[in-house]
Amino acid sequence: MIAKFGAYFITASNFVLTDAAESIVNVFASSFAFFSIYLASQPRDANHPYGHGKVEYFSVFIEGILIGIAGVIIVVKSIYGIFYPTAIHDLVTGALIIGVTGVINGILGYYMINKGKSLPSITIEADGRHLITDMVTSTGLVVGLLLIHFTGILILDSILSILVGLFIIYTCYKLVRRSVAGLMDEADFKVVADVVSVLNANRKEEWIDIHNFRAQKYGNELHIDCHLTLPNYFDLNRVHEEVSLVDKMINKEVTTTEFFIHADPCLPDCCHYCSMPNCPIRSEPKTEHIEWTMEKVIRNKKHFE
């Protein structure tokens, strides 16, 4: 941030100011992100039985809003600069400074995105994407400053600044959209699709159907609920064994999750798609194979309903 404001005072360029202003957002957003990660890492308590992970979505929301404010200010300042231009100078020096900061932000941004995905932490990943956005704008900034230097078209300073400002506002929209989705418990269809794929590939004859499937994220913790239909003559030990198999399989092959599985007894209407061999209570032979799909498993009803 200090380097970018130094470049602005050297060049007096609105284009450079756009990057410097966004760096202020980086500092404030990262400070709030630091606190939210600390809070999200705290263990569950009586008031927060699912942990404190939701604060990460709030952190991303704050970061997105701050980025949006910076983008709006940049656009307004740049439009003003079109009608009331100021003299700009030392553009090559400014481009060099911005270029160095862009490389640093790019390296740090890619590291944080990978770290955010591996933990997983939406806050760290979002902060990394913010830095990648900063790298992209810095790259455009360097090209723009050199273009202005060699062409002498000074109005490009404000025009390019407006374009960068609009790009920053679009980044704001994506971050806010993602944070609101998390706060509103929007379904994570990718996780659901991955889980359903693994279940289909490892499906046992005893697992008659799976329904009422729901996945929710609380920061870096994933919670999954579903209903598993099993033969109604299984005793409690056998039911527990089958439920545990599903739980361990998903945790091993898809993602670490807290899996709540409600066991349902089968009904006579399940017989036509049940693969259970030598069933002592079968009322009709199997006549249909029902593939588990996302549309089927998320419904709160057995497959015959």
Topology:
Elements: H1 2-11, H2 14-40, H3 55-83, H4 91-118, H5 122-151, H6 156-183, H7 189-201, E1 209-218, E2 221-230, H8 236-253, E3 258-265, H9 294-297
Parallel strand pairs: 2-3
Antiparallel strand pairs: 1-2
- Rg calc: 27 Å
CATH class value of the largest domain: Mainly Alpha
**CATH topology label of the largest domain:** Alpha-lytic protease prodomain-like
Taken from the alpha-carbon principal axes, the silhouette is elongated
Query: How many separate structural domains?
Result: 2
How much is the average pLDDT? 86
The largest β sheet comes out as: 3 strands, mixed
Strand order of the largest sheet: 1-2-3
The H/E string reads HHHHHHHEEHEH
Instruction: Specify the helix fraction band.
Output: 55-70%
In total, the number of strands is 3
Annotated CATH homologous superfamily of the largest domain: Cation efflux protein transmembrane domain
Straight-line N-to-C gap? 60 Å
For the record, the CATH architecture of the largest domain stands as Up-down Bundle
